[in-house]
From TrEMBL:
One of its GO terms (biological process) is protein unfolding. This is Trigger factor. It comes from Pelomonas aquatica. It is found in: Cytoplasm. HAMAP family: Trigger_factor_Tig (MF_00303).
Amino acid sequence: MAVTVETLEKLERRITLHVAAADINSEVEARLKKLARTVKADGFRPGKVPMNVVAQRYGYSVQYEVVNDKLGAAFNNAANEAQLRVAGMPRIEQKNEAPEGQMAFDATFEVYPEVKIGDLAAAEVERVTSDVTEEAIDKTVEILRKQRRSFAQRAAADVAQAGDRVTIDFEGKIDGEPFSGGKAEGFQFLIGEGQMLEQFDAAVRGMKAGESKTFPLQFPEDYHGKDVAGKEADFLVTVKKIEAQHLPEVNEAFAKSLGIKDATVEALRADIKKNLEREVKFRVLARNKGAVMDALVAVSELDVPNALVQGEAERMVAGAREDLKKRGVKDADKAEIPADIFKPQAERRVRLGLVVAELVRANSLQAKPAQLQAHIEELSQSYEKPAEVMRWYLSDRERMAEVEAVVVENNVTDFVLASAKVTDKALPFDELMAAGN
């Protein structure tokens, strides 16, 4: 019997399914008999419970399972016969009228859309490049020095200055009243490194150990503490201790402490450059990939299945709960996170996924084994034991699926860049790094 598919709106379709009542009853009876062999009930030995008792206790749930199984099979058969690509799960509702001896159901669902990718030659993409400069290497060396710095207490006559670590007591008041988070004892911070608001930082500079002072502080309008944002407070601060920092010299000993095999400054800088170039490569690739995906979506036409968007939004909610759980938030799995807040992002993900899938299919951009191998080798080079990292990837199907997805995206990026109107832009190293934070 030919399947009749009714088009409702855009991607929404409806099929009427028929299931023979006799088939359902027969299957329910068979399952209840099987269940009766093991079911337990007070007053009866196992396997000796009367069928009427088994049917009374389990009949409804078994019938529900059987109907669902029969409908699932009927829907799959109908969808296959009609050559439909179903997006998401169908919504099934029983009809009041049905042919004699049958049960009738309406299955309403969505299908995958036709994806029309426009002229890629008309797409405009800004492709960035960036180089690792000597200045960038110098800055990284300074970061490494600061990570290994030591502190020594200053003389009593010395004043606090930039780079010093100070230990202080402070108390702030607004209109003469204390406020939450405005008081601390034995608090440490480094002057001039942005750990405190600039007004607070500046007030402590020039003070001596044992000295106290009161000063006004204006909280910014966008301050993270909403209760004090935009307000002026009066702070009383007492300096308890001042420590001068000592940065290690950049020499062979410093290089050795960082695990550099040759233990020379030149080898250290070469190692830093290599690591920075790897990071720059991945950041440039990610930025260019994002620009390509934006351009690809802009030149494509398709209707997006609501079922897929809802499913993606629900996965994002689950991901948000998992993130809260990792942060130690109590009852994170029960957090009320409405899926609607993720809907715009979910819609874009689904749209982009459908467009990319069509471009890959139409242009044979699937990941090749050699590409997967090369990508894993590149990822492994940033680790101490690359061979073990490679085995870690190759031994797990899910990890390999993630690698495959990245390689496919890289193939799509290269394909679009080869066709689109590309404008090249050299991006300063610092700007590239700041954009990724």
